[in-house]
Design a protein that fits this description.
163 residues; mainly alpha; Chromosomal Replication Initiator Protein Dnaa, Chain: A; two-stranded antiparallel sheet; 2 strands; 53% helix
Length: 163
């Protein structure tokens, strides 16, 4: 049914419902303000920074864990004559890869930190820590790092795994 100038009152009512302000919605005074607001939300949600630009890490709750990991990292970097930023960065040259592997092995064997915590310190994935620690042990004739699983994580057929 049309009234007056041929405008459908049902369409007008639906448009009013769709266009009414949402309670608690933020109003922006400029497009730049809106873009800044949504980019801040995206940074919080998706953390678009590169991993190696982030600070070392906030805090790991392992008794003596984080400080020990950081001291191992700095000591190995000093012994290899490379910077800690190079070890935490994306470069994959042989010297850095071997130095990282040494750090993974030493961190896993000398601390009670998990592979995830070790990986966070150096901005890598936990599977990289596991694989490179194994490879470092094999290449240098060292004993493999044995990690015991808790009862809730136990696997049928054995209570220890190499990581």
């Amino acid at each position: 049914m049309t009234v007056g100038l041929g405008i459908n009152p049902g369409a007008v009512a639906r448009a009013r419902v769709l266009l009414r302000p949402v309670e608690g919605a933020r109003e922006f005074h400029s497009a730049a303000e809106m873009r800044a607001h949504y980019s801040a939300i995206a940074r919080r949600l998706y953390d678009v920074r590169k991993k190696w630009d982030t600070p070392v890490i906030k805090e790991i709750v392992v008794p003596g864990g984080r400080n020990r990991l950081v001291s191992i990292l700095y000591q190995i970097a000093k012994d290899a004559n490379v910077s800690v930023d190079d070890l935490r960065g994306p470069r994959r040259i042989k010297k850095l890869a071997k130095t990282r592997a040494k750090f993974y092995y030493k961190a896993m064997s000398e601390t009670a930190c998990s592979c995830m915590q070790i990986a966070k310190i150096i901005n890598k994935d936990h599977t990289t820590v596991i694989i490179m620690a194994k490879r470092h042990a094999i290449d240098n004739g060292l004993p493999p790092v044995v990690r015991r699983r808790s009862n809730k994580d136990s696997v049928p057929g054995g209570d220890a795994h190499y990581s």
